Amino acid sequence: MVATALLVLMAGLFVLARHLAVREAGWGYAAAFAEAAMVGGLADWFAVTALFRRPLGLPIPHTAIIPANKDRIADSMAAFLRANFLTPQVVARRLYRFDAAGVLGGYLANSGTIVPGRIGDSLTSLVADVLETLDPDKVGRPVKTLLKGQIDRIDLAPLLGQILAGMMADGRHMPVIEGLLRRAGTLLEANEPVLRGMIRDRAGTLMRWTRLDDRLANALLDALYAVLAETVVDPDHPLRRKIDETLTQLADDLVHDPAMAARVARLKAEALANPAFTAWLDALWERSRTGLIAMLRAPGGVHEGMSGLAGFGRALGEDGALRAMVNRFARRSLTGLASRHGDDIVRIVSETVRRWDARTVTRRIESAVGRDLQFIRINGTLVGGLVGLALHALERFI
Question: Residue 131 contacts by C-beta under 8 Å, 6 or more apart in sequence?
Fold first, then answer.
């Protein structure tokens, strides 16, 4: 309305100035200004209108540009989004300085972020309905695939070696060894008749006739019981030192020996390919899904769950190593998502715009930028008038 009113004002000024210029030469400057302003305003009105529709409904070539090129605009928008936002390089660069773990930790640690009242209850009910309605196998397949992939990428041998070395440095392996020794004594006692039978079967006829086989069996079993008992009660027993030496060498081999690392990697691969591991993952997912549904259905269950996650949120805020690991995982996951599904995302944009009719596209774009385009008309009117005024002055003085 302002731009059109300004154009009408210039037309009125032009008529008045041309009428008065006959009597007073100074009105010629006003007439030149108004004339050039009308030309600039009309030209910009035509340009702005031609973007969205045909000016005055006339079939002028290269008008109604947006409706006529709706599909090409959709493809251009999708290509722009793909090239400038959804490439792995761009995503990685954007996320490099973004502290995703810090944001997540602050959210979880702040109990006030829990959505209260009916809105929170509706959201939890909706999530529970989705988990119950969707096929558990289809929903859980990406989760299990992600978990299996993360386990597969772990370099397990150095990790096991460091854990074993840490346990031995603190002496935490000793209760395990003592438990194994006691277990060995229990097994020996439970299977004593079998061992006696094996010794008797391997003894000669003369030893059985002289009953030396029983004495031999008693001597061997007594010696085994004595060794196990002494090893349990004596921290400096030679067998304990031998076990420590063996475990120390094993920890070192796990960290530094490529052959040991390859052996562990092979065992890990065999375990991942074992149907029993897949069954364990299925059971883990089902327990997690049903437990989450039960928590969401229970009165106040989501609040209790969020309270439990608050500790993890505080750990993210305080533990720099944990925060770095979570940030690294977030960058890798989102970069991989952009690499694998970037084309699908931009295709949604392109297909959505293509499905809009021309009137919808025109209305939405015009409502977004129309105000700025009207300022172009105003500026064109004023700039055109100033150029006309300058040209008239130049004509008068030459």
Answer: 139, 289, 292, 293, 296
pTM: 0.41
Greatest extent of the chain over all pairs of C-alpha atoms, in Å = 155
- Listed residue (77, 82, 46, 87) closest to 63, CA to CA: 46
How far apart CA 391 and CA 382 sit, in angstroms, is 14
Burial of 40 (0-12, 13-18, 19+ CB in 10 A): buried
Question: What pLDDT does 112 receive?
Answer: 47
| Radius of gyration in angstroms for the set of CA atoms belonging to the chain, rounded to a whole number | 41
Tell the residue number behind the tokens 């989705």, with chain if given. 130
d(CA 362, CA 368): 10
pLDDT at 382 (0 to 100): 93
Q: What is the DSSP letter of 85?
A: T
Tokens of 136: 């558990």
Could you tell me if 297 and 128 are in contact, meaning their C-beta atoms sit under 8 angstroms apart?
yes
Q: How far apart are the first and last CA of the chain?
A: 39
Burial class of residue 381, CB neighbours in 10 A (0-12, 13-18, 19+): buried
